[in-house]
Amino acid sequence: MMKTSSLVSRQKSPPLSKWMQAQQLEDRCFCWLSQQLRRPGNGALARWLSRSGDGYGYLLFCLALFAVGSTQAFPVLQVLLLAFAIELPIYWLLKNTLRRSRPYSRLPHFASLIQASDKFSFPSGHTTAAFLFATATATLLPALAVPLFIWAALVGLSRIALGVHYPTDILAGAALGSALGWLALSISGIL
């Protein structure tokens, strides 16, 4: 009788146990990756890359396109405005519904290099915006595709280095940003 109840209780616990094991694995991966990515300049490069993904950079890029007389300046601006108008509410809803704590809040032994402006980490907003920008802009300016996607990936990695996002936050942000970039291009009739 004792063996049966023990077997039943073990059968009910594996999903939670597997979830906890997956989170522990991600915690370990995050800590190792964050430390490795901090090595160049003790996080100075990560700070710079992260700041390059702040919102003003996208506006400056569009202004630069207009300044050099690019024929794609207006289409890029138009698609980006549409894409970010779609992205912001979706991003906000996901973050505030899923409410995943930031690594430095969950891991008492871990020291982040910065404190994020909000409490939740999933998905990474910087990564979402960077991949949205890279997807939309690379479609209209294909010669910039490789540097744009390398930059977007580096923005995502910088968020891990700074200690404010897990790797899955970055992967989700990259997927969401790319999908929303394609959606905006499709809605605007460019695809």
Please characterize this protein's 3D structure.
The chain is an all-alpha fold and 191 residues long. The chain is 74% helix and 0% strand. The chain has helices spanning 2-12, 14-38, 44-52, 55-67, 73-98, 103-106, 125-140, 145-161, 167-187. Residues 4-9 have low confidence and may be disordered.
Throw out a few tags for this protein.
191 residues, mainly alpha, Vanadium-containing Chloroperoxidase, domain 2, 74% helix
The amount of beta strand, in percent, is under 5%
**Low-pLDDT segments, ≥5 res:** 4-9
How far apart the termini lie comes to 65 Å
Report the major sheet: none
Specify the overall morphology: globular
In short:
With 191 residues, the protein is mainly alpha-helical. The chain has helices spanning 2-12, 14-38, 44-52, 55-67, 73-98, 103-106, 125-140, 145-161, 167-187. The longest helix is centred in the middle third of the chain and has 26 residues, at 73-98.
